[in-house]
Amino acid sequence: MLIEAAGLAFFSLSLGMGCMITYGSYIPDGVRIGRSALCVVALTAMTCLLSGLIIIPALFAFGFSPAEGPGLTFIVMPALFSRMTGGTFFAVLFFVLLLVAALTSSVSLMEVVTRFFMDEMGMRRTPVCLLMSLCMFVVGIAASLSFGVWQHHTLFGMTFFQLLDSVTSCLMMPFGGAMVALLVGWKAWNSLAGKLTSDLSPRFALLLKITCRFFAPIIIAAIVLQGFWFALSSAATG
Fold it and tell me: Which of 29, 75, 102, 115 has the maximum number of C-beta atoms within 10 A of its C-beta?
């Protein structure tokens, strides 16, 4: 469970995919990076905790199965709102905000690739955005159909959505996060330490250094190994 939670943290904090590095390049020099990072982590953890306190009790109260996965949001929340006073209003408000959250997440992910093509290949933002949006739309169709007419079409025992989720959360993002941690902890610490720890206490800065060098790579390696084991197990049973 702890390994699964660590894998989810890569999604929640946009780690291992270049989002924070890309956004960090836009931060003014006067911003305190260490304190800002702590605020982001704290607010994200609080949001996840509150979501769990809402979804999990309602899940068992209405007799739904936790095995239904991400689709539970569209099953549990409507049932919950139907029992509330003014539930229709709050349901509309909730799903509108969920749509905004999905769109803003897509923008943040697309900015990484867009910025790469702009900086490395000299392309203009508009064509790159249109091309990336089309690619995301096509892949999104296949992922959405995995909950419908394509739910019985599997590869290695997983639907297209499950395969994307497993490969990205358990393999690709942890690998990227491990490389960033090792790079910061060993190669670039001397040049980055001043900006990263200028607003942190010496003890916390030391803890951050040790975490980047040792703790984070070890935990991430466990996530990657679990991802390989899950993929092999799914292939064997599928």
Answer: 115
